[in-house]
Structure prediction request, 149 residues.
Amino acid sequence: MNQYINILLAFIGGVFLAMQGGLNAQLGVQLKNPLLASLTAFFFSMLFALLAVVLSVKNVPKTALLLSIPKHLWFTGAFFSVIGIGLYYYTIPKLGISTMISLGLFGQLIFSAVAGHYGWFGLPQEPMVIKKIFGLLAMTIGILLINKS
Prediction:
């Protein structure tokens, strides 16, 4: 796939994540509980994902493949997702969407830069070069300016 299309898809994904954060934070306000909003969001996400799988998956994985996957991979991503998304839904109504998303993005940037540098999670190493450090610094300054009262 063309790299420009991948960049556009990543941008659209970010827009959709901000949209779902705002909408589901409002659901949490209406429900008076951000964890209920998380449960609702994940339940319907599961239904939408199931529909997408039913419509698109041609070959179901073999049992041997399923059994070979490390046990922790079945649940740890979901665990961190519930915590992260729950924190989004809790803090968006308190901080505002642009503040929360910018601070959340800041956390993602710093963690991903470190994780990429060391190649954590079996992903490709992305060395911390001076250009990347300057980019992180520029984004940090931008986030500080976005959140300056």
Summary: Residues 114 and 120 are 9 Å apart (CA to CA).
